[in-house]
Amino acid sequence: MEIALKAKRLKAEGRDIISFSIGVPNFLPADHVYQAAREALEHDSGQYGSNRGPDDLVDAWLGSLERSGVTGYGRENVVTGVGAKHVLFNVLYALVDEGDEVLIPTPYWTSYIDMLDVMGAKNVLLPCSAEQSYKLRPEQLAAAITPKTRVLMFNNPSNPTGMVYTKDEIAALAAELVKHDIWILSDDIYREMIFDGIGWHHLVTAEPKLRDRVVLIDSISKTYGMPGWRVGFMAAPERLAKACVTLNSTAITNLPEVVCAAAAAALSGSQAVTEGKCKEFAGRRDQVMACFSRIAGMTCPKPQGAFYAFPNISFAFGRKHRGQVLNNDVDVCAAMLESVGVACVPGSAFGEPNGMRISYTCKAEELPDGLARIERFFGELE
Ligand SMILES: Cc1ncc(COP(=O)(O)O)c(C=O)c1O
């Protein structure tokens, strides 16, 4: 956010800035989504609604999960919330007590840490380097679990790396997880953004015994270009779902009717916009990788999902750019913003200071220009 704000400020000062810093999709929802919202407005009851979420929205999400190959969940397992962020907060609030250990593979989505700090949990970071494609390995997991471990945070595809676990990798993790009595929060919000036909594979389908301890987290934000509409979902064992319904009752009561109608339409209507965007992002990923491959010293595990890439930039540390020594990821990103006007996020924001995140959802015409500037920046290193 700091980098994004600085980029905005420089832009306001008249500088020519390209921002690769914010993780939002660059498209608006399909027409049928707006149509559903308009119709809902016509019939709006203006009343309080269900703490869980209205049945048609819950059913629409269950249908979408089934299309992705996850079956066997019913309305009693599902709870909605004000975006995946709120749903994650609810679940962590329900599960985690002060002092509990929570396993977080790094690089991680920043808000996990902030939420767990609020809960007073002990964050146990599991470093997943570029050499292991930023993916958690079963033996790392086994070594980190203690009697105090309560939860594993698992994000696939990943923000910030764009990494996607293969079917075999998911099966290997599931085989390890089934041996330990811990909860798994599977943050699946990028599940529709998968490239190269590799498919999306889930721990609960790999190992059905995990169903008692896995929570699926989802959102319409990234898939349908609806981050501001604020609709998220979870599927969990009934007891936990019930606790989260109670938390909703206490904190928010319900999501607005019009928003629910739009979200249901997005989930159950034509998926053409999402599919088109997914193809477009795969092409952009290729442009990003082609650029990185031309930068001497830079390595970047190939992302196969979401809309992020996370190159290792440690080759630049200790070197000079236009006379200034770059000591770390923050120096690199700050110098890049100042000198060539490109905003990326330092990896330390995600617990991996050897990298930086580039989010490639900018305007189409900005991408080649932004990438050329990044190439120029690293080419100027002394
Ligand atoms: C991995 C991950 N989880 C959850 C969220 C939150 O999504 P929502 O907009 O549904 O709150 C984000 C948003 O950037 C994210 O990247």
Topology:
Layout: H1 2-12, E1 18-19, H2 31-42, H3 55-67, E2 78-81, H4 83-95, E3 101-106, H5 110-119, E4 122-127, H6 138-144, E5 149-155, H7 167-177, E6 183-187, H8 203-206, E7 214-219, E8 232-235, H9 238-251, H10 257-268, H11 272-293, E9 308-309, E10 319-321, E11 324-326, H12 329-340, E12 342-343, E13 345-346, E14 356-359, H13 366-379
Parallel strand pairs: 1-12, 3-4, 3-5, 5-6, 6-7
Antiparallel strand pairs: 2-8, 7-8, 9-14, 10-11, 13-14
Helix pairs in contact: 2-10, 3-10, 4-5, 4-9, 6-7, 11-13
Bound molecules: pyridoxal-5'-phosphate (PLP).
Pyridoxal-5'-phosphate binds next to helix 4.
Percent of residues in β-strands: 5-15%
Range of helix content:
40-55%
Order of strands, widest sheet: 2-8-7-6-5-3-4
The CATH topology name of the largest domain reads: Aspartate Aminotransferase, domain 2
Characterize the largest beta sheet: strand count, sense, and whether it forms a barrel: 7 strands, mixed
